[in-house]
Amino acid sequence: MKITQAGNLYQLAFLPRLFPVNCYLVEEKDGLTLVDAAMPFSAKGIMKAAGEIGKPIKRIVLTHAHDDHVGALDELKKTLPHAEVFISARDARLLKGDVTLDADEPQLPVRGAVPKKVTTVPDVLLKEGDRIGSLLALSTPGHTPGSMSFLDVRSNAVIAGDALQLRAGIAVSGQVKLLFPFPALATWNKYEALESVKKLRHYTPSLLAVGHGTMLQDPAVKLDLAISAAERNLATALNGRSSL
Q1: Dist. CA 146–CA 124, nearest whole Å
Q2: H/E element holding 241?
Q3: How many other β-carbons are positioned within 10 Å of the β-carbon of residue 200?
Q4: Domains of the chain (ranges plus CATH)?
């Protein structure tokens, strides 16, 4: 596990050279908020990192319900029975293994590894605009139907889950990077993913922190490039279909 600090934010990177999976500790006055729960083997590393910071984990916030973001959730909840668990109301269904779609949602298959054995029941179901300490909840669907990102209102840093990837270069969720294609292959709706990243760009984040790849300071220019690339790719795909 590799720990990288940026102000009040600590990135915990598991398997950073092979298959990087990140979760984050956000330092607050009363303790720590854990954003995502990484892999099943990550619980000890997360607890060790919290111990080194010297504050208890008070909250566990999930960006979305894929196995590599909720893997250690049950183990952590056993260790931290009083820690509140937060997830979007929409992805709470995925956390239970329910991949059905609402009638008004694009009827595209939910992709990626959806949990089948998670027993933890969320304490709080999030919606757009909710606050968890210093974090502002932002609805950013696309990777999953209920994906959320979190803006630290103190620093303007954004923790975006898999709305984007930074491993093998920046990309909007759904856009394939050949050296690390996995987030794209696990994306539900690449069109909604693009709109969600445009929304995040509107906040002019000071730092971008995602599920796969190192944190990016002052990401505006690269975000613009990623948005433009996704727009071109999706336009090409649509034009190809219309010519058939």
Answers
A1: 14
A2: helix 220-242
A3: 22
A4: 2-242 (3.60.15.10)
Mean pLDDT value across the chain: 96
Cα radius of gyration rounded to whole Å, the chain: 17
Tell me the pLDDT band of 241, cut-offs 50, 70 and 90. low
The predicted pLDDT at position 239 comes to 78
In 10 A of CB 105, how many CB atoms? 15
Count Cα atoms within 13 angstroms, Cβ side, for 192. 18
Under a CB-based contact definition with an 8 Å cutoff, are residues 34 and 59 in contact? yes
**What's the pTM value of the predicted model, to 2 decimals?**
0.96
Alpha helical stretches, state H, 18-72: 43-53, 67-70
- Phi-psi region at 142: left, alpha or beta (left = phi > 0; alpha = psi -120 to 50): left
Query: Region 102-118: what's the mean pLDDT?
Result: 96
Residues 6 or more apart whose CB falls under 8 angstroms from that of 117 comprise none
